[in-house]
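Below is the record:
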Amino acid sequence: MAERFFEAYQPDAAFVLFTADNDYQDNRVNSRYGYYKPYFTVDDGQLILRGIPVPKCLFYYFSAHPAWFKSALVTKLSGIWIRWRHPLIITPVDPTAAILRQFKSDVEARHAKFFVGFNAWGPAQQALCRQEALQCLDLGGLPRFPAIGHHWTVEGHRLAAQRVAEWLKGRM
């Protein structure tokens, strides 16, 4: 997974920030914000990349053929056709642990250290870190915006960067 980044930068470590708010869900579906995307399934413990090539979404057809979509009927029928042709897929097994396991393996095969930070820290994240023998950092409790997405504020980002830098110093 990380080969192109390692070739270009040759880092000593890789730090992945896992957003518990949506990453678990995003790892299990083939669509986000109306766009299709690749996704993984887990078969016999192995990660399998699916959804390649990525199907064109309805937004593509809107921009490629704007005159067609002046008709509400064409728009409605196109949406039905796209959802029939490329239905939403939700994988039965959450591939998150397998994704992190593979990423860790790829990083360590390049003689670098692998770390994971979580923006929310609870029993599920603690269990995942123990199960996969991951070095994990709790980045929960930082200031967030109260509405849509609950992203960190500017102060939250500053505190997260400071916490990550201090934490990594003791592990490098």
Q: What stands out?
A: The helical segments are 3-9, 23-26, 58-64, 72-85, 96-109, 123-131, 154-169. The chain has a mean pLDDT of 89.
